Task: inverse folding
């Protein structure tokens, strides 16, 4: 067990204790919980993409920023004109990105790496959709912008995807165990992680379940890897405070930028969208270049986590 | 006549069945640990005595719990918590006994005992004294307090003092054994909050309509695996390490 997973377990247990008494959080309270967690951990984990990419590649800072902003802009445009295509692309990219970061500290069998990464991410995302179908249906009827997804909410399709991708994940994990890429303990640990993430999607409301996974299990792990990368750059031990100082300006710029876009939308300068839908577009748009940067990061640098 | 009534178990009563098998398994394990105690080296005798005590205390409680269950058909919550309040701290003592060779201080034992009693007492208050119909604030408060105790033990076993001492131990068997016990704490002990989840408003109660009557089956199986399994891990360490001591003389 690594410390990230320990924090995930502890958070899961505290949230379960909170929900075991039948407590019901309003959408506003859930969003507040999510927003605080995402600003504290979610956004910082993608805030130093520039530092990571520019250190690893012979690319000018100007070219990188242009590429990054064009990717964000094109993705946002796609959302306005082809929302269905956009959400499918977002889910596919996210599935691969989540799976890739989950197994980034193993040296997996090359032939299974991409399949396992994608199947793991697709398994948890289809579980999230399957177990929160009621909430999603409500979202598509009450929040402006989500109506176009209503017809695609099919429990049978989500169930089939969930079973298929979970099976592929188990097969890939077993192959890696058989080929001694995992120890038995690591194998059992990965099964436990997958089971608990799926369990959390089943037990908690959509926003809470996803926030728990995204901020603790995903973002915190990526931050840990980024911390080690930056520490190596400095060639000396890096204090958490110093790492925080590095993250802070980029995180602030990201939050500020997202705030500006929201404001421009509210002032009708940009197309007027509901807060929830705009948030989805923004998250999707920053995920696209971030997933690309992290893909290159993992391919260039595979470092173990104790 | 009374005895005949008590011993009658319907064939489809899995809870009653596991109360009987749980009782017999715990008793058999106690006999095994007490007898095997004579075969191990002196420094491991206390560990096996504690393993035997854990299963013996559980066996006595299971004897009473199965009667209580068969005569009332109800969940013996109070008896279970009395059992756990005695046996879980003893499991924590096992952690101390295994790491004492690597330099564990007595304060570690008391910290673990305190955390386990904390976890169980608040868990019991939360589960047994929940007002009729279920009180959210009551469940949440005691649920969170109880969880704090569990998290402390989990941290100690995986990253804290226990894990560090095991890491520093010269014996590979002790290192692996403590890791296995840490897995018991992580996976095996995770079964116990099921009672909490079956209370009115809890997610098992809401999702499947499960009540306290459904938890006994899980508890009986989990108890047997955890207590006997815990003891067997300790037994394996003791017997392997004792063999190492005897080997040079042979």
Result:
């Amino acid at each position: 067990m690594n410390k990230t997973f320990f924090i995930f377990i502890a958070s899961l247990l505290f949230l379960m204790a909170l929900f075991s008494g039948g407590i019901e959080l309003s959408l506003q309270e859930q969003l507040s919980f999510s927003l605080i967690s995402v600003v504290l951990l979610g956004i910082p984990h993608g805030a130093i993409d520039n530092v990571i990419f520019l250190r690893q590649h012979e690319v000018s800072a100007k070219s990188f920023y242009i590429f990054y902003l064009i990717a964000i802009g094109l993705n946002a445009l796609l959302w306005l004109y082809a929302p269905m295509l956009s959400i499918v692309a977002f889910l596919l990219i996210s599935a691969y990105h989540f799976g890739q970061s989950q197994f980034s500290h193993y040296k997996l069998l090359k032939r299974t790496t991409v399949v396992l990464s994608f199947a793991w991410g697709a398994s948890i995302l289809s579980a999230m959709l399957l177990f929160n179908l009621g909430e999603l249906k409500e979202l598509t009827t009450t929040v402006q912008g989500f109506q176009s997804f209503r017809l695609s909410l099919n429990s049978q399709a989500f169930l089939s995807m969930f079973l298929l991708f979970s099976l592929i994940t188990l097969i890939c994990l077993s192959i890696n165990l058989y080929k001694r890429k995992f120890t038995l303990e690591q194998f059992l640990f990965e099964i436990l992680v997958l089971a608990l993430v799926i369990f959390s999607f089943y037990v908690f409301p959509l926003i809470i379940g996803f926030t728990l996974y995204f901020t603790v299990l995903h973002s915190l792990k990526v931050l840990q890897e980024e911390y080690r990368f930056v520490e190596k750059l400095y060639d000396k031990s890096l204090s958490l405070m110093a790492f925080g100082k590095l993250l802070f300006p980029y995180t602030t710029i990201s939050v500020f930028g997202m705030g500006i876009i929201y404001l421009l939308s509210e002032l009708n300068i940009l197309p007027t969208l509901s807060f929830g839908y705009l948030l989805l577009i923004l998250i999707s748009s920053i995920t696209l270049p971030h997933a690309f940067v992290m893909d290159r990061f993992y391919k260039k640098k595979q470092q173990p986590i104790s | 006549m009374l005895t005949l009534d008590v011993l009658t178990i319907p064939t489809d009563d899995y809870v009653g069945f596991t109360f009987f098998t749980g009782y017999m398994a715990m008793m058999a394990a106690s006999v095994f640990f007490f007898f095997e105690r004579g075969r191990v080296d002196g420094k491991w005798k206390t560990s096996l005595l504690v393993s035997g005590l854990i299963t013996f205390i559980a066996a006595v409680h299971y004897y009473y719990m199965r009667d209580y269950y068969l005569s009332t058909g109800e969940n013996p919550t109070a008896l279970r918590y009395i059992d756990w309040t005695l046996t879980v701290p003893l499991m924590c003592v096992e952690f101390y006994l295994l790491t004492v060779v690597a330099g564990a201080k007595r304060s570690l034992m008391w910290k673990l005992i305190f955390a386990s009693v904390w976890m169980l007492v608040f868990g019991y208050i939360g589960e047994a004294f929940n007002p009729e119909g279920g009180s959210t604030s009551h469940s949440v408060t005691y649920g969170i307090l109880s969880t704090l105790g569990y998290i402390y033990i989990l941290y100690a076993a995986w990253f804290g003092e226990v894990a560090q001492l095991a890491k520093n131990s010269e014996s590979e068997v002790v290192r692996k054994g403590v890791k296995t016990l840490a897995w018991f704490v992580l996976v095996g002990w995770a079964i116990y909050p099921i009672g909490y989840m079956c209370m009115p408003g809890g997610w098992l109660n809401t999702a499947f309509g499960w009540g306290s009557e459904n938890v006994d089956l899980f508890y009986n199986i989990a108890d047997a695996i955890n207590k006997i399994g815990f003891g067997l891990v300790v037994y394996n360490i003791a017997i392997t390490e004792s063999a190492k001591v005897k080997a040079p003389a042979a």
